[in-house]
Amino acid sequence: MMKDKKLDGDFLTTNHGQKVNHTDDSLKAGPRGPIIMDDHHFREKMMHFDHERIPERVVHARGAGAYGYFQVYESLHDYTSATFLQDPSKVTKVFVRFSTVVGSRGSADTVRDVRGFATKFYTDEGNFDLVGNNMPVFFIQDAIKFPDLVHAIKPEPDREIPQASAAHDAFWDFVSLMPESMHMIMWVLSDRALPRSYSMMEGFGVHTFRFVNSNGKSHFVKFHWKPIAGISSLVWDECQKIAGKEPDFNRKDLWEAIEMGSYPEFELGVQILPEEDEFKYGFDILDATKIWPEELIPVRLIGKMTLNENPTDFFAETEQIAFHPGHLVTGIDFSNDPLLQGRLFSYLDTQLTRLGGPNFQEIPINKPIVEVNNNQRDGFMRQKVAKRPVNYFPNSRGNGCPMMAGREDMGYIHYPQEISGNKVRERAEGFKDHYSQATLFWNSMSDIEKQHIIEAAWFEWGKVEDTGIKERLVYHFAHINDSLATKVAEGIGVRVPNDGEMEEIRTNLDRIDKIWKDKRRVGESPALSIENNKKTDSIKGRKIAILAEDGADIQTVIKIKDWSKKQAAKGEVLSSKGGKLSDKSEAVKIDKTYLTTASVVYDSIIVVNGKDSVDKQLENGDSLHFLNEAYKHCKPIALIGDALELLGKTPMSELPFKRTNGDHPRIQEINGVVFSEESDQDFWNIYFDVVAQHRHWTRQLKERVPA
């Protein structure tokens, strides 16, 4: 019998390189005797296993990552000397980590939460970390409140519940006493907190930074990531069901998109503000609870990032990557944002516990592509072997090396900002405006987005047991919008503010107006709405469920899968059993069964023609449930040929579709439901349009659907 040719790398070894020929049984004194202590292989294997877990991140514990590259569109030398932002031909490697914030590593992806969006640029000047979120603002203005915020939003300390959820008394008690959180709360209660995909959500640097050019000229800057696929969200009912059916939904989506070559892409945008314009606007530009409305300060798109490679080892890469807002390159500097200033301490400090010591930058995922050359030595997990015996500066024994870069070599130079003032624990007057941009956000939403915010408040505050907390929250909402406060109060069964409280609210709002008198402000910002910014020229990344049973038209199934692939989408065949569907000429693999998936993980459903197939589905409650649930969630649905009969067993039977005759067209579309006699080019054109819309909120009857 021939033996397979083995390479040395194929053999199992100990951690020290000794080949191992048996790893299924411990070394014992006889087959039934005790384990002998000199079983060094067992001891080494068990020791490593016992220490494999490191402390998870306090926040952003659950994440997914990918490698990619970034290229700038044109030189930004007028604004910054950062080399990776100068040459359009320069390719800068990146690693991006997306994450939820509140939950543990084992929690679900689709919780209502902020999402982390952290990017490490491996530049030729060292690493630059843009550590942001999918929301442009934050709950608090000063980092000293960060421990309180996280303590409040994490599970209750006496019972360790709820996991990955803000829907409990502690968090909302904190928020009800911290009105500065109101703008962020509007974002968290909105559809922005329920991203359909990591590739379909925006990213923001949150804080105000500086660009500094080679002449020392400074501009304030905000960073934005704009997804080329557009922004899309789930609905709350879907999120809760996906958490049980597919808890790794967003992580899996990212992995599969890259594996199939449908690479997530984002454009990097910047808002640039001259220093002399710092005080021209109706918001403090250093306040992390405020945005710079795009209608006042436009976002300039300066480059594109493409994520095209999945990690090889989740722990070594995605888990061990260490981000820090203080990892800067020449030409980018900080502002005096007090939340950013506090992060500069916290992020560096946390790595000492999480990654075991001060040498975390030597872990391959954190290692810069440029040479690291300094006098740091020793410490846990030190890997670099220093070539010089001199570890201090100044020195003569090492010829003064490593020497400092001269100014002409452009080592990192902090912007020489003039600083003066007394030591105080105070906030600037502009930081005392807690409601105007929360109102701006509300005013910018479409009707359906406003309804979702109201329903989100009903869910979150409906789980709060203390009536006083709920009344305080409604009081704050009354500062944002009267109708919003009234509808939320009615839904959770608490009173609205009385006349005296409303007079106090009006006084508060008048005070805010006086702060920003004669400053530039806007009443609404269309850029904040997902619905008002739908991208309808692509269905990249969408997942399409193809419902079919034995007797289905196999050629139609194949057409749908091929068409989906050409659109950078993914079509999956679903049936009541696994295996293959076949006819006399061809067979097609069944990708999923109703037992292993659900309608909530798909963006659209197509039911193919074939009388035998449709007859089986008419008797299958799972198939009918798929249709009902997709309809209720306002998703695109397509029915081909005989599949129209399925509507007769659903509340959609009231839709006025008819099989083709002299009075009815061959293809019909009503509120995102398409019926076609066959899958010809006209059908694909109409179907593309309804899928690109993502949701069809005007759909009638959806509240009557039992799903």
From TrEMBL:
Main EC class the enzyme belongs to: oxidoreductase
Alphabetic keyword roster: Heme, Hydrogen peroxide, Iron, Metal-binding, Oxidoreductase, Peroxidase
Enzyme Commission number(s) from the entry: 1.11.1.6
Reaction it catalyzes: 2 H2O2 = O2 + 2 H2O
Domain Catalase core: 13-401
Region feature (Disordered): 1-30
Pfam families per record: Catalase (PF00199), Catalase-rel (PF06628), Catalase_C (PF18011)
GO-annotated molecular function: catalase activity
InterPro entries, per the entry: Catalase, Catalase_AS, Catalase_clade2, Catalase_clade2_helical, Catalase_core, Catalase_haem_BS, Catalase_immune_responsive, Catalase_large_C
Lineage: superkingdom: Bacteria
Needed co-factor(s): heme
Family: Belongs to the catalase family. HPII subfamily.
Function noted in UniProt: Decomposes hydrogen peroxide into water and oxygen; serves to protect cells from the toxic effects of hydrogen peroxide.
Protein name per Swiss-Prot or TrEMBL: Catalase
Annotated source species: Negadavirga shengliensis
